Amino acid sequence: MIKLKELRIQSGLTQKKVAEKLGIAYKNYNTYELGRAMPDIETLIKIANFYHVSLDYLCGNDFHRVELGFLTDTKEAIVKAVKELNDVQSDKALSYICGLLGKTDTDFK
């Protein structure tokens, strides 16, 4: 669980505070973060939800990172709307965003 320490530090929290917010013993959280034990699936889900990441990301797959909890309400709404676009609409949306930012689509791929 290498990602736990990284996520906790990014959140500016102590191990004790995270354990408290998750409703688990500090000793357990500490062993998870150190990689000495693995949490059960229910605890993994709690941790992923707490940090607003997917289980894939939590377990080391960077490609599936989800950070909706760290976005403003407007940006979160945009991400949710993008999920409903078809391929043609997605291409148009990316072109529009690139125009707003003065970038090309290759900057995001």
How much β-strand is present in the residues?
under 5%
- Round the Cα radius of gyration to an integer and report it: 18 Å
The level-1 CATH class of the largest domain:
Mainly Alpha
CATH fold node name of the largest domain: 434 Repressor (Amino-terminal Domain)
Helix content: 55-70%
Query: Judging by the overall fold, what is the CATH architecture of the largest domain?
Result: Orthogonal Bundle
Number of helices: 7
What can be said about the biggest beta sheet?
none
- Overall body shape: elongated
How does this model look, in words?
The protein is mostly helical and 109 residues long. The chain folds into two domains: 2-68, lambda repressor-like DNA-binding domains (434 Repressor (Amino-terminal Domain), Orthogonal Bundle); 71-108, no CATH class. Helices cover 61% and strands 0% of the residues. The protein is built from seven helices and no strands. The chain has helices at 2-11, 15-22, 26-34, 41-51, 55-58, 73-82, 87-101. Helix 2 (15-22) crosses helix 3 (26-34). The longest helix is centred in the last third of the chain and has 15 residues, at 87-101. The relative contact order is 0.09. The mean pLDDT is 86.
